[in-house]
Amino acid sequence: MIKTLLKLLCLFMLGAIFHVRPIYAAGSTLSVEQLYNHIKDDPLKLRVFLRDFPKGGDLNNHLVGAIYAETWLKWAGEDGLCVSISKAKILPSPCGVVTHNEQPAQNLGKDLSAWSHMVAALSMRDFVPMVGDRSAHDHFFGTFTRFAAVEKHHQGDMLAKALQQAARDHVIYIEIAVSPALSAMINIEGRPKLEKKSDLSAVHEKLLPVLGSLTKLAQQDITEMEKQAHQKLHCGEKDEDPACQIEVRYLFQTSRNLPLISILTQLEVGYFLTKNDSRFVGVTLSGYEDDPEALDHYKLQMEMFHFLNGIYPAVNIVLPAGELTANLVSPENLTSHIRDAIDIAGAQRIGQAMDILHEDDSSSLLEKLADHNILVELNLTRNEKILNIRGNEHPFTIYRQSLVPVAFISDNEGILRSDLTEQYSLAAKQFRLNYGDLIKLSRVSLEYAFVPGKSLWVKHNLGHKVMSCNREIVSIKPSKKCASYLKQNQKAALEWRLELALKDFAKDEIHKSILSKAH
Q1: Which segments constitute the Adenosine deaminase domain (predicted)?
Q2: Are residues 207 and 265 both part of a single domain?
């Protein structure tokens, strides 16, 4: 009874939590909240408004999926690679004999039909089934092999592109999912057998001798990638790209669709790096959850995380779970993936989580997500294009009503032909969000980022500053006490930076409104 009353009280307060007073308004001038209300039903004006809106953090950007099809084809041309039109794929070598079906990538722009075909093949643009596709779901997950031949020699280019897009989205912090030294990890010699939970300890012991060399290779890959990206962005130079100002961290990623031993090998390296290299802040999974082998081994994969949590404690975990529908899997596979990701693997953040209401005792699971402050990461474009879930069928409102923290991510923005701005725009339109809701979403994205240090806010109570800064007006020169706190806590410093950006954004929007009235 008490829990029910508390829940009702929280729901009653929801409006107050989401409401943001027009504190930046001056005199009779419209506040930024009123400006938003004025343009929110105009898609074009809403897009422009939200493009410039400060979005805090992007907590899951899959680097390999962040690149647009046109860019892959451009790089393939620069590398002298061949494109197979019939296979809808970039080949790993130059063309032998040039035919209508096999053309040099550098010539593809001269054939509009072939160019359009390949752009569609490498992305979700104007989806129609191609070779090997049965659905949009299959097409999305099939794209990764179609441009794989280009990845190896363009890691720095990829990072630079991802950061430039993040800058356009007005993001100040990003967590990028990467799989460095992948080939070395899936091709280690004398791979031990891994078939069940009881094998984990023995396999771990057999992996220890190669762990150091694999870790070194992964670090070298990241260092070289960053070096190349910084050169392209002119970081540290007078003409540096705005993307250089984004705080970057990495999630070590493995695919749930690899052999079990390859998954554990990568996770071992990922856990070790997260404990010993400050550039890495967590581990994650990728791949399609409804793959038959991934379904069969789901609990064992969760047990891998549980096992490694005992060896490398306090490593952050974000797991995509529940990206399933009754159309994709049988009923028994809809009942526990999200709960297992939390209870067995120990995930602090969950990705997508579309089947929440299909899980056993979903009400208690929602309570657990809220009570334990477990964030749900969402990409509305992905949910619609892959699972055909949008609007009233989407659990976004369920999560909000249950007080579960939610943040939008860019995910595989190149393949999806989307961006973080679109996620805010779709949410604003589909769920009738007010300006306070947008600010809360932006703040949440940093509050649940895997950034070291304490928060600017008291116990996740966004808008209520900690004692060291509680009487402060947001400015570039906080008091000595507050400045000291921000210096000691990187998360709080980023959150303060977001508050400054929100303040500046409000002033700029009001100024633009005044100028437009003057004309």
Answers
A1: 159-454
A2: yes
Please tell me whether residues 416 and 468 are part of one structural domain.
Answer: no
**CA proximity to 349, closest of 335, 322, 369, 334:** 369
Q: Give the CA angle between residues 29, 34, 39 to the nearest 5°.
A: 120
Residue 139 lies in domain: 67-151
Structural domain contains residue 278: yes
Number of separate domains in the chain: 3
Residues in the chain, overall count: 519
Cα 438 to Cα 440: distance, rounded to the nearest angstrom: 5
Distance CA 473, CA 475 (A): 6
Report which of 502, 515, 462, 517 is spatially closest to residue 23, judged by C-alpha positions.
502
In a domain, 5, yes or no: no
pLDDT value at position 515?
Answer: 59
> Tell me: the pLDDT tens digits for 53-74?
999 999 999 999 999 999 999 9
- Dist CA 407 CA 424 (whole Å): 10
Q: What are phi and psi of 277, to 5 degrees?
A: -130, 115
Q: Can you tell me which residue has the tokens 């949910």?
A: 383
Q: Is 358 found in the same domain as 226? A: yes
- Residues 191 and 265 grouped into a single domain: yes
pTM confidence score: 0.92
Angstrom distance (rounded) from CA 17 to CA 10: 9
